[in-house]
Records
---
Amino acid sequence: MIKYIVVALLVGGVAGYLNSNYGSITAGNFVSDYLFNASLLLLLFIMGVAFGMDKESIAKMKRVGFRILLFPFAVALGSILGGVVSGIILGINITASMAVGAGYGWYTLAGPLTNQLFGAEWGALGFTVNFLRELFTIMTISLIVRVDKYAPIALGGATTMDTTLPIIVRYCGSDTLITAFSSGFVLSIIAPFTITAIAALPH
Amino acid sequence: MFDSTIYLLSLVIALVAGLCSGYFLRNRKRVNFGKFTFGVILILIFSLGFSIGSNNALLNSLPHIGLNATVILLFVLAFSVLLVKVVKKMVKIE
């Protein structure tokens, strides 16, 4: 199954590259905006229906309750801590590498925001690290799920409410839908605030 | 900021609409959406790849900052998984 996903990603990448250099802007916008959003909304709706019909998943959700909100905060803390440690090891600006980590995989936010707050070089890094986070989650999910059922949710960060959600539900089980979505949702909401707050630290 | 708020809201609305529909249909016969869902996943991943491939600025910056980016990424991921495991143990979620 992961084979088809990787192939779809690569074919899409090549098609997008060719289109942006030789093709039409209209076609590009159609795929990147319309097709992307339409398929995402449809998937969320279908996964919602499947979860709503599944009495076991609902019962499990009720047992866990508000404790699932601890996941996104663990992911946030882990991401920022990872930024600190890698900043120390690489000998680069630790505040900036913390901010890069605090993008939680949302590269279209982290890129421009770190660019604005720390300069162009960090903007590129903020974009790349968070973009690779999404890519890495998609590519390695079949292995990472063996480490821990919830490890893909930790890897996906903010992307677990959209791009990586359908794949996580496939590999980790349909009962992880709400955990993954709420984790991605909370991380998406706190990402702009944590990045800005980190930038306010002395650096 | 405004755009991303609308985006987040639209995702929540789609999911909640699905959850409510599913809940009201819960005593009906279960339909297997597996194949259809997977088809839509492939469309989603294709269009994700497409917008990455269209982003020339990103593709050009990858080679220079690859090493720093990889090191930061690995630590970010390792600590995220570690802390999630710790929290899971602490609050006993299966």
---
Amino acid sequence: MTIKGHVWKYGDNVDTDAIIPARYLNVSSTKDLAAHCMEDIDPAFAASVKKGDIIVAGENFGCGSSREHAPIAIKGAGISCVIASSYARIFYRNAINIGLPILESAQAVREAKKGHELEVQIEAGTIRNLTTGKTYRTAAYPKFMLAIINAGGLVGYTKARIEERRRG
Amino acid sequence: MGQTLAEKILSAHTSDPVRPGEFAQVRVDVALANDVTAPIAIREFEKIGTGKVFNPDSVVLVPDHFAPNKDIKSAAQCAIMRNFARDQEISHYFEVGKMGIEHVLLPEQGLVLPGDVVVGADSHTCTYGALGAFSTGMGSTDIAVAMATGEIWMRVPETIRIVYTGVLQPWVGGKDLILYTIGKIGVSGALYKAIEFAGQAIDALSMAGRFTMANMAIEAGAKAGLFAFDDKTRTYVDQRATREYTPYAADEDADYAATIEIDASLIKPQVAFPYLPENTRPVSEAGNIPIDQVVIGSCTNGRVEDLRVAAGILRGKAVHASVRCIILPGSQQVYLDALREGLIEDFITAGAAVSTPTCGPCLGGHMGVLAAGERAASTTNRNFRGRMGHPESEVYLVGPAVAAASAIAGRITRPQEVL
Ligand code: SF4
């Protein structure tokens, strides 16, 4: 899968209340959540994000609550991929489970600026900054996670496992 | 090489013994969701197509975040969960009037036990590590899968051991220990890892204090925060357990990713400044921070022991004229115990408002939301931007003693200053 989009850049410890404030958690539709994505740290985001854009952020992205509403809001806003230096673990697994591509590369993060254009190859784990011309390699996904990603997320993966067991 | 407590418990719930870094399918004893996370979990559960949950006695559903229903949208969310609980004949669904904040409620009702693996669609599910259970927060889709199959995928975490030596100073409790620790190791200090809390100060700590510490393990990025099973755990659990349980202990030669020693006798009452739980300092060095609101309660400090500490300070005193002081008992049982002990009367006489159990203001939901520019001292666990209301409001995290003292003084202060 190849992804191309422009960068929205954020710092370290972007928490789940920043991604989707808890006061909006009395709804669960993707559209309603996307409308408030990043509202408290970047009020312009939801209105101006373009389909395919990429979020680039520092350490511990998605720290805080377990709300799957966070990756749902990001995906719903049209973001095609998140690249961060590191992730909070619940956010990481939520993103994998719902099929939001997510990569780790501290160097790509350091050298990307807001508005840069990136091209990302998920399987190969490469990030190309088309604005600067530099290429970065990320660690490959463990086999187990790739199986979830290839099944389109955890629900697809689980259905296939149940089916397999049924057939013995 | 021996195993840590986390590795022991997980190995007892997988087909083969596990080592850190491995991916494993883990059997779960309890799967939990609340009114915010259950609607998405139910939507995903229906896509999986098993029709029925793997065991209706092992699923726990608690409407606590926006319940009693805050508005029409929350009412709809709660209704989705209520109907699912009815259709699936879930035995542990807690209606308003019987419910509490999930992480106070489940241990109190004997639903989570030592040696269990518990997964919850709520990040503070790590609270049950206080009982010597491996419990961790996940997303809604994970819980959908756990509800359908009774299993979940996990990457086995490495463990950091934190040893607290010494005897605690007056007015220092579990909240101060954990705030101090997060200040020391940072909000990503235990990322992807489990923590084992140990040492003389931990042995002496009450179960309530241990729940407070395990609760905030996630604020250091940890997957779980565990305590060894001892006589205190046994006394707590044996009055409540609804089924058999197996306590586990770490091996003497267990392999830890790191061991951190903290001299707990040097720790003073702590406060975490906005907007991260790691921005801690001693209250004595906080400077002059006037406050508009005090919140005492939540899954972090909403147990009767916490209310006892707060009431002991507020008794016979008055909440400062410019402060709204809100008390949130963690469950109906805590409320009733506090009532019988006379604590509720202490609060009301001092000019505090006592709420029915709910998450309410902890997540800026209802029952005490902050306006722009307002400040709260709160015994909750997160002080992110906008957590209790307007993005320009501020939350200072403290323990119940400092919260009560601050309510009287109208600014963040130590108990010694008002007594
Ligand atoms: S009291 Fe706060 S932290 Fe605890 S479960 Fe409720 S919202 Fe979450």
